[in-house]
Every structure is written in C-alpha cells, then in structure tokens.
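New here. Invent one.

***
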Amino acid sequence: MNERSFSLVLGYLPNIDDTYAPASRLSLNKRFAIALNTYRSSKDEMYFDSEMLLKIVKDILPIFPHDTISVLFDSKKIRIKNIENLNVEDLVNSVEENDPFVRLEVLLNNNIICLVNVECYTAIGGPIPYHDTYTFSFYSDDYSIEELLTRIKGIVETEGYYMERIVYGKDQPEISLLSKLKLFFK
C-alpha cells in the first residue's frame, strides 16, 4: 500500500465540520479539505509529509485567481508573490520540527479570497476521514469542483499518491444540538 495517501472532503461533514470563524467573517463559506495520512511504517510517530503538501498546494491554489500568498505561523508571517517560489521551508515552522503552518491566506488585490486552516487530528484519532491526519481545510466564496477534481486526479497520476476516498459533505455545516453540547462540556 502507498503510504503517501490522503482523503478529499468536499463540503462539511454533518456533526463533525463546523464553521471556521475567520473564514465565516469574510463570507468564505465553501469548503473542501485535504486530509494527509500521517502513518509511515518507517516512523515511530505521526509524520507530516511537507513535500506532499507542497506539491498539492502548488497544484490546487491556481483554482483561485491570486497575486499573493501569506503563510502564517505562531510567531511569523511569510508573503510570497509567485506560487512557483513556494518551497517546503515556507510551509513548516522549522525544518527540524516539521510542523505545518497555522493558516495560509490566498489574496487577490490585497483581499483574502481563500483561507487554508490546519486541523491536526494527530495522536488523538478523530473521525474518519480525519483519523490520524493533518487536515488542510480550504475556505472560499466559490471554486470549481470539476477543476479541483481534475487537479487532484493529475496529482495522483503524476506523483503516485494514493487517494483513499472522496467524501461528499453538505454545503453548510450541520451540527446537532447534542454535538454542540458534547463539544461544550468537553
């Protein structure tokens, strides 16, 4: 089995995915997510494949017309004008720690048109398809599902990655009262 695998989630999964406040404030409510599998037989711990993320991000971001990318970490922010100049070091906090960025902003004319939020389901499990993954949720006001799927298919074919599943969710979050209460008392 190819260990360099991921799942694609289109939309919001009921009782799992909720709104991301910074995206919601900007009316960026359409969502898809790339959930990178963290298992590697050669590693003792969960593994973040920064090279795989770089290739996926470089191939996906062109679906959003943009002129700048901002990569945010806890203590720094990197601005990149040309996606071709994006490299692994731009996506990780430090090469030694190999932790992903906190948030990525895709801008056009200084307006954020897409936010990418990192959700770590590492060492805590998480529901399928997020179980033991680094999940990168992309929020925008619109995107072409057909173009996204074409680009994902291209990544799988050219890079040899394994796409475990495509999961179709809802257009908007659907969180039940019971689920909200469980989160509140967690």
